[in-house]
Each structure stands twice: as C-alpha cells, then as structure tokens.
C-alpha cells in the first residue's frame, strides 16, 4: 500500500512537472537585437512525401545513427555505401520563404520536405551559450544539427529555439537538417479546414543566438494600469534570467533619465520606475523609448512604447480618451508574388497599404504574424489585434488540443508583450457555440489574462438575426473584454441593402467591434452593382455597410473589414472570378485599389475627424 502511495505521489509530481514544463516557454525574446549569426539564405532540400528519411519500412522512427536517416547526410561517404538519398545544390530553396512559391511542383504540396544548410562559424574563444532560433516553421519542425536531434516544435506561426549542446557546433563543416511537415491534421491548430493557403516551409528567419552563461531571457515593461492620468507615470515590469543565480541587472531608459540597479533573486525580479516626462504611445504619436537592460556580461537594447488601453463604461479608451479602431484585416501574404510575407520590407509594404486607407489599426489574421510586422506597427503607430489560429471547428473536447492552443498563445504573448502597438490578444475566430467550446475558449481567455493584464482579450464571434435585429449573445462574450463579431450581411445572405433594415443588439455591456465584414470584387470586372463579383457590387456592399455603421449604438468601437489584399485560398473555386483566390481584398492581386477601397477610406477620414 505504502509503495503504491509513493509511486502515486511520484506520478503526481511527474505529471505536474510535465504540465508546468509544457506551459513554460523557453523562448529568448528580442532576438532581432541580440548577438546572432543568420542562417538565412539558400538551403538544399529533399521532398519526402513518404517520410522515408524519418521512418523505416516498418514505420518505426529511425534510430539516431541510422545511415538512411536524412539527418545523417554527411556521415557516410565510402564508395561501397548504398545511399538512396542526398542533398544537392540542384535542389535549392530560399530561407526564409514558403516552398509553395519557389517552384511549380510545390504549389499544392502538403507533406514533408527536408532542408539542409552547411555552414562554418567563427566560434572564437568565447564561452557563450548558443541557441538555434526559428522565427517560424509551418507546421512541424524536427531539427538536427550534425546528426544530433535538437528538438521538435509544432505550430506554424510562432518562434522557438533549442539550445545547442556545448561542443556540438564546430568551427567548420556543420550541417543543419530540418524536417518540415505542413500536413494538416484534425488534432492540430489550425485544424484541416481553413480559408487560407497552407504555405509550408521555414517561413521566417533562422539564427544562431549567442548569449552569456547566465542571460536575460525575457522581460516586460508596461505602463502601470491607470497611471497614464498621473503626472508621474509608472512603468512596471519584470525580467527573467534563463536560470537561477544571483545577478545584478541595470535597467536604463536614457531619454527619461531612468537608471535602476536591480538584484535578481532566483531567476527573476519585478520593478517599477516613475517618470513625469513620459510621452505616451499612440497612433498619432508613436513614441518609442530606447530601453537598455544590462548585466555584467550582456547588454540588450529594445525600443518600447508606453500606453494604456482599457474599457470604461462600455467604451474603448486609449490613454484616457475614447478611440475608434479604423482597422483592416491582413493575411501574412504578398499577393503579387503569391507568397508568405517575412521581412521588414514586406511589413512596411502591408502596413503602408493600411496607412493609405487611413487605418489606425490592423487585425493580423488568423495567426501571429512575423516580428517585423509588430515592430513596424510600433514605429508606424498602428494598433494591432494579434490572434492564434484557433479557427472554426477544432477538437474542443481534447485536452491535448487545448494544451497546443495554450502553447501557441503563450508563444505569441511571450514574443510580443513589449509591443505597444498590440492592444488586443485574440484567442480565436468563429468558433461554434457549444458548451465544450465555450469552456475551452474561456480557458484561453483566462490564460491570456494571467499572462498579460495590460491588454484587451477578444475572440471573433458570430451573431444571428431575427426580424431585422442582429443579436450577439454568444456566451463566450461573458469572458472577452469586447464583443467582436464577424458579419457579412449582404454577401453571405441577401444583397448589400439588407443591412439597411438591420439594427444591432447585445446583452453585453462592452464595446462592439466588427472584426470582419466584406464582399468579393474581381479586380477589373465592371458591371452594374447587382452583378456579384463585380467591383461595383463590392463598392455597393461597402456603401451599405457604412450606412449601417453610422447607425450603430454608441459603444461601437470600430471595425477591421475583410480584407486588405486578395489572398490565396483553396476553398475558392469559381472558374472565372476566383481560381483559388479569395477576392475580398480592397487591393487586388497586383496591389491595385478597387472601387470599394475609396468608400472605406472616405468613412475612415470622417471617423478620424470625429475622434481627433
Ligand atoms: C470569415 C473568416 C475568414 C474568411 C472570410 C470569408 O468569416 O473568418 O477567414 O476568409 O470569412 O471570406 O469568407
């Protein structure tokens, strides 16, 4: 009996350790400003739909030294060797970048592709620890360096890193092999059913990150809630070392003449500092401050803005004033090159288009976008809604799926919690109303709030209409801070003028936000406004919608229509007007503005005047 008790206790400890360690992100933040060596560039690849490089003929995962495992590529070189694979420059691919856009044979491919990069690295004499950091790989990455497995990561839109064991990396002749698998799966996030292209590959930057033995892994600096109204405002935060050990840390914000010595106890320290000269971040004045965090061995520099976002009496309030979100939804895609966006240049382009529309906000749909995007939003003064791909109907009953969603949420918040532009974390989109789903989603809301009390938590919900009244009653609305709803009155039901008869009601005393609304318009197709898919139909839709926006209740806080650009989607198979594209963009495949663009822009110009 006693033995049973002990082993039960052990099992409980093990379970709790496992759950905690799953929930603990070891992500190093602010990689863009750390000491790094980029592994971007040309990699070699092998397409492996049968996963031969990973499984043997009994479908067992290959042993680490198996000479037929594709990660052991350089090891066997005798002329007697039988070798049935090999990497070659003949099959080369660009990283970062999705594979689909890089060769015709990849366009519809979903499955495994092996990537290989050979490199030398100047290791000097330093005793630094080295991590291998990926901005994102869609969807599953199994990572091997010099034949040794570093780890596996799932989730196509979040960053991750693995520590490289000491001595594994050599000055010369390293080879990094990544098995990338973008197969859709029913128990993953997103699940098999979405309305976007499942671009596969190493879609974001790859870096070696060099850090001291004890280093600052992560930190948070925010304006303390409510302190925006005080003369002396408070910045509060914490920082976390990678491992326990006493350490002195200096926090500086030179422009505010702040310099504070902190003593870390255990692995973290909390702090608050006051200043009466802080200029708050806002879209009109996106002020960022240089923040320097240093220990005896390292110096981390970041640029951080301070602002306050909250809800008061059903209104959305930025720095003490009501704000109207003139938003637009954006996919992480560059349509004229039919590829994923991944660079600062791409971010400037997409956010530049949003600026042309006079938007002050973007909804980064439906997954966390790359870090250039949120950093560019910080400096351009564009508020951001950032979301995890809990989309439509995933397996809400599964604890395993919930754990995956939580991990993605945690990875999203960890990377970006110092971006002032981000005002909303979204835990999902158009999930079906039922008890399992509401419980699942409420746990995500709870987790987001535990991790970050300085922002608003939302989910894109649905409404239903009876006799001209469009009602938002989704029980998930109890948990979220705003009631965000996607509506397509006049596109997915009836004609655009249907919205004339509609009034909106919700039982929640919270801001209402239209997280989507839109209609397709095939660029260059001109007809009368009743002709679906014409630019005139789309223009009419927007005109009618604007009429409805103007009749919204006082707690209407803004919108992020669907969508900035036309985007690829395998669901869209009209042989003339779609051909694999969802054409609800205000800009077409080639970046040309459609007629509807000007209708929304005129509305945003008016709203800007009303609120400023
Ligand atoms: C939606 C989805 C979005 C789709 C859009 C559409 O409600 O959230 O991902 O692309 O509608 O075009 O139907």
From TrEMBL:
Stretches assigned to the Glycoside hydrolase family 2 catalytic domain: 309-607
Signal peptide: 1-23
Domain Glycosyl hydrolases family 2 sugar binding: start-end pairs: 38-212
Keyword Transferase: no
UniProt xrefs under PROSITE patterns: GLYCOSYL_HYDROL_F2_2
GO BP terms in the entry: carbohydrate metabolic process
Name listed for the protein in its UniProt record: Beta-glucuronidase
Record organism: Pedobacter frigiditerrae
């Amino acid at each position: 009996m006693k033995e049973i008790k002990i082993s039960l206790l052990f099992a409980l400890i093990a379970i709790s350790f496992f759950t905690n360690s799953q929930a603990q992100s070891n992500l190093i933040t602010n990689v863009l400003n750390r000491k790094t060596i980029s592994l971007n560039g040309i990699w070699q690849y092998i397409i492996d739909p049968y996963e031969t490089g990973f499984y043997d003929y009994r479908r067992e995962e290959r042993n680490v030294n198996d000479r037929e495992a594709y990660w052991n590529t350089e090891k066997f070189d005798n002329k007697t060797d039988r070798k049935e694979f090999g990497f070659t420059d003949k099959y080369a691919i660009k990283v970062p970048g999705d594979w689909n856009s890089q060769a015709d044979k990849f366009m519809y491919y979903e499955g495994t592709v092996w990537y290989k990069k050979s490199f030398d690295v100047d290791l000097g004499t330093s005793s630094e620890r080295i991590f291998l950091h990926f901005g994102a790989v869609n969807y599953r990455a199994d990572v091997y360096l010099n034949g040794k497995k570093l780890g596996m990561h799932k989730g196509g839109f979040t960053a991750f890193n693995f520590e490289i064991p000491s001595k594994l990396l050599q000055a010369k002749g390293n080879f990094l092999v990544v098995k990338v698998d973008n197969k859709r799966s029913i128990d993953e996030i997103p699940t098999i059913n979405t309305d976007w292209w499942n671009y596969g590959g190493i879609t974001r930057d790859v870096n070696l990150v060099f850090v001291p033995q004890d280093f600052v892994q992560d930190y948070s600096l925010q304006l303390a809630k409510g302190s925006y109204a005080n003369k002396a405002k408070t910045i509060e935060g914490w920082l976390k070392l990678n491992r326990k050990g006493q350490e002195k840390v200096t926090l500086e914000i030179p422009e505010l003449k702040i310099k504070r010595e902190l003593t870390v106890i255990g692995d973290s320290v909390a702090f608050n500092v006051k200043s009466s000269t802080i200029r708050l971040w806002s879209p009109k004045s996106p002020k960022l401050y240089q923040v320097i965090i240093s220990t005896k061995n390292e110096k981390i520099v970041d640029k951080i803005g301070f602002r306050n976002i909250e809800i008061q009496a059903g209104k959305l309030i930025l720095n003490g004033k009501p704000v109207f979100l003139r938003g637009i939804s954006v996919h992480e895609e560059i349509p004229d090159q039919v590829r994923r966006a991944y660079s600062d240049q791409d971010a400037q382009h997409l956010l530049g288009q949003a600026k042309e529309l006079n938007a002050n906000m973007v909804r980064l749909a439906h997954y966390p976008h790359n870090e250039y995007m949120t950093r560019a939003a910080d400096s351009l003064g564009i508020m951001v809604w950032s979301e995890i791909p809990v989309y439509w109907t995933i397996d809400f009953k599964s604890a395993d799926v919930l754990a995956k969603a939580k991990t993605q949420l945690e990875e999203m918040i960890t990377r970006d919690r110092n971006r002032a532009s981000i005002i909303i974390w979204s835990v999902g989109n158009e999930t079906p109303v039922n008890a399992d789903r509401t419980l699942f989603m409420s746990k995500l809301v709870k987790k987001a709030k535990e991790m970050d009390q300085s922002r608003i938590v939302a989910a894109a919900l649905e409404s239903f209409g009876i006799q001209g009244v469009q009602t938002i009653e989704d029980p998930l609305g109890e948990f979220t801070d705003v009631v965000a709803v996607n509506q397509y009155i006049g596109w997915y039901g009836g004609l655009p003028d249907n919205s004339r008869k509609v009034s909106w009601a919700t039982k929640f005393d919270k801001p209402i936000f239209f997280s989507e609304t839109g209609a397709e318009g095939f660029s260059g197709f001109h007809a009368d406004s009743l002709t679906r898919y014409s630019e005139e139909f789309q223009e009419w839709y927007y005109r009618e919608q604007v009429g409805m926006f103007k009749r919204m209740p006082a707690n209407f806080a803004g919108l992020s229509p669907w969508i900035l650009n036309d985007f690829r989607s395998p669901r869209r198979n009209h042989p003339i007007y779609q051909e694999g594209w969802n054409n609800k963009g205000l800009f077409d495949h080639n970046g040309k503005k459609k007629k509807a663009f000007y209708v929304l822009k005129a509305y945003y110009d008016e709203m800007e005047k009303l609120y400023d």
